[in-house]
């Protein structure tokens, strides 16, 4: 199954349809999947998604010595990446991505929604200083309303980030629409585009509250 790419004058949306990812995602969706298994599956999928989202990283050539001869071999060019986790569920994607790219820098953005104004309020922000020189991959498992994703990317742009991608596990059409309108320059990579949001802003069919399932808090 090929990945599905849709970029109709909105953010490019890449749905990674690799069978391993789809199978593991089905296990994660099941209500009877235990916390430890959920966490392990998210880590495994995030490694696979990291592989996919980095497929266009620029390469350079370095001269090396093999046991037999000298060769000009491909190597990643430029500065290391930066992964930015939107707290708290975003942290569930970090370890699997760092397994593949152990030198990446990591930032964290914490936002909550003011219950009266519904504005995203920042309570934590810590990112590498040289964000402008790095491809910044913002991670959060669920792109639901898109409000926190939009606010986090906006904050990172203010903080100097110039080249960004957004990585999630599941996306709702409403979230993709809102995010694309706000940040058409930031492509979205996801494992699935689900049907819709319910009246509480949860993705249907979804997998429930990713943070609670990840950390066993409900
Ligand atoms: N956040 C979640 O954890 N789950 C959803 O379905 C929507 C937002």
How would you characterize the overall build of this protein?
- The structure is a single chain.
- It contains six helices and 15 strands.
- It is an alpha/beta fold.
- The strands form four sheets. The chain has an eight-stranded mixed β-sheet. It has a three-stranded parallel β-sheet with strand order 9-11-13. Strands 3-4 form a two-stranded antiparallel sheet.
- Helices cover 31% and strands 29% of the residues.
- It has helices spanning 19-29, 35-53, 91-100, 147-158, 173-182, 210-215; strands at 4-6, 13-15, 59-65, 70-76, 82-86, 105-113, 120-126, 135-139, 142-143, 163-167, 170-171, 188-190, 192-193, 196-197, 203-204.
- Bound molecules: uracil.
- Uracil binds at residues 89, 142, 144, 201-203, 206, 209-211.
Strand order of the main beta sheet, please?
A: 1-2-12-10-8-5-6-7
Overall helicity = 25-40%
The count of domains is 1
List the ligand species.
Answer: uracil
What value does the Rg take, in angstroms?
18 Å
> CATH topology, which one?
Rossmann fold
Rounded to the nearest angstrom, the distance between the terminal CA atoms is: 35 Å
pLDDT < 50 stretches: none
Overall CATH class: Alpha Beta
Question: What is the correct CATH architecture?
Answer: 3-Layer(aba) Sandwich
Biggest beta-sheet profile: 8 strands, mixed
Per DSSP, what share of the residues sits in E-state strands of 2 or more residues? 25-35%
Alpha plus pi helix count: 6
Order of helices and strands: EEHHEEEHEEEEHEEHEEEEH
Structural class: alpha/beta
Annotation, overall tally of beta strands: 15
Q: Overall 3D geometry?
A: globular
Mean pLDDT metric: 94
